[in-house]
Amino acid sequence: MTEKLTKLLNDSPVARWSALILIALMMFFGYMFVDVMSPLKDLIESSRGWSSGVFGTYAASEYILNVCGFLIIAGIILDKMGIRFTGILSASLMVIGAIIKYIGISDWFQETAFCEWLGSWWVSMPASAKMASFGFMIFGCGCEMAGTTVSKSIAKWFKGKEMALAMGLEMAIARLGVFAVMWIAPIIANQFDKSIVAPVAFCACLLCIGLIFFIVFSIMDKKFDKQLVAAGLATEEKSPEDEFHLSDLSKVFSSKMFWLVALLCVLYYSAIFPFQRYAPDFLSKTLSVSPEVGAQLFSCFPILAMCLTPLLGIFLDNKGKGASMLMVGAIIMIVCHLCFAFVLPIFPEQWFAVLLIVVLGVSFSLVPAALWPSVPKIIDEKILGSAYCLIFWVQNLGLCFVPLLIGKVLEATGGYVAPMTIFASFGILAFVFSFFLKIEDKKKGYGLEKPNIEK
C-alpha cells in the first residue's frame, strides 16, 4: 500500500498559504510599479513635456515585446525550466526594467548627452518618454512572465484544494497594489517637492524585495518537489510522455476552449487596465477635482474586488458555476462603462463615481476567480505554462494597442465619452464569448460549472 506515508508540504495549510503570500506580494509590488505613473499623469506632462498621446504610447510599451512573441518564449521557458528558474528570471527582469525607467525620468538624466541624442529623433516623443518606455518594456516582459509563473505555481500547490480561492486571493493582494499606489505616489511626490522620480524609486525598491520573496518561495518549492519524488508522485527526470515538446503547442492552438478563454481574457482586461491608466485624469476632469483627489477616488476600485474575490473563490471551489459568473461580470462591466460615459457627466457626484468604481471592481474580481482556474481543466498540465503564456500573449495584444487607441481618441475628441463607449463595447463582446464558452462546456463536459475541490 503506497498511500502518502509522509505529509506533503502543500498538505499543510500554513505552508501552502505562506507560499501563496510570498508570490502574491511579489505581484503586489509589481502592480504598484505598473500604475505608479497613473496618478502623476498631469505632473509628468508638465515637468517632462509629455502629451496624452505620449502617455498612451508609454502605457502601451509595457506590452510591446510580449506582443512580439516574448510571452510565447516565456511559456516555453516555464514548461522547460520550471517555475523556480522562470520566477527568479521574471522578477529580475522587473527590477532591471524599473531601474531603466527610473533613470529615464530622473532629473540628472535630462542633462546628459545621451538624453539629448534620444531627443534628436522622433521628436514628438520626448527623450525621457523613450527611456521610460524602454524600461517599461523590459519590466512588462518580467511582469507578464511572473503572472503566468504565479498561475502555474498556484495550480501546482493547490491542485485538488482551494485553487479558485488561492487564485482569487493572489489577485486580491496584487490589486491592493493599485489601491496603495494611487494614494502613496501623490503623497511621496508632494513630500519631495512635486517630484515624479521619488515614487518610481520607491516602487523600484519594493520590486527588489519582491525578488527576495520569490527566492524564498523557490526554496520551499524545491523541498516540495523532493517530497513529491520521495512519495512516488513525481520523478527526478521527466518521462518522454511528460516532457514538453514544441509540437505540443499545436494542441493549444487547435483548442476551441483555449481561444474562447483567451478572447474573454483580452476583452476583460482591455476594458480594465487601459481604463485604469486614464481613470484618475478622467475623474479629475469629469468631477472638476484635482488629479490627486481623482487618484484617491479611483483607489477605491480594488476594495470591493479584494473582499469579493476570496468569497467568489470559496463559492467556485465548493459550488462551481464559473462560466455563468463570467457572463455576470461582463454585464456589470457594460453597465459601469456606459454610466461613466453618459450618466456621470450629467450627475458629477463623487459618491456616485465611487459607487461605479467599486461595482466595476466586482466585475474585475470575477476574472481571476472564475477564468484562471478553468485553464487547468481544459489544458494538459505539461503544457499549462505555455497555455497561460499564450493567453497572456493574446491579452497583451489588446493591452498594447488599446492604450494607443484611447490616447489617440482622447486627443481627437478632447473628452472621455468615446473612450468609455469603447470600453463598454469590449464588455458586450465579452458577454457573447462567455455565452459561447458556457455552451461549449456543456457540450464537451470540461467541468467549468463544477466545483474545484475534489471530494
Topology:
Elements: H1 13-34, H2 41-48, H3 52-81, H4 83-105, H5 113-118, H6 127-157, H7 163-191, H8 197-230, H9 249-253, H10 256-270, H11 273-287, H12 291-298, H13 301-318, H14 322-343, H15 350-371, H16 375-378, H17 384-413, H18 417-444
Keywords:
455 residues, Growth Hormone, Chain: A, mainly alpha, single chain
Structure characterization notes:
By secondary structure, the chain is mainly α. The protein has a single domain, classed as Growth Hormone, Chain: A (Up-down Bundle), CATH 1.20.1250.20. The protein has 18 helices and no strands. The longest helix has 34 residues. The radius of gyration is 22 Å and the shape is globular. The two termini are 21 Å apart. The N terminus is likely disordered.
Task: Provide a compact summary of the structure.
The chain is mostly helical and 455 residues long. The chain has helices at residues 13-34, 41-48, 52-81, 83-105, 113-118, 127-157, 163-191, 197-230, 249-253, 256-270, 273-287, 291-298, 301-318, 322-343, 350-371, 375-378, 384-413, 417-444.
How many strands appear in the DSSP assignment?
A: 0
Which spans of ≥5 residues are poorly predicted at pLDDT below 50? Answer: 1-5
Secondary structure: helix percent: over 70%
What characterizes the major β-sheet? none
The CATH topology name reads: Growth Hormone, Chain: A
Head-to-tail CA distance between termini:
21 Å
CATH class term: Mainly Alpha
For this structure, what is the CATH homologous superfamily? MFS general substrate transporter like domains
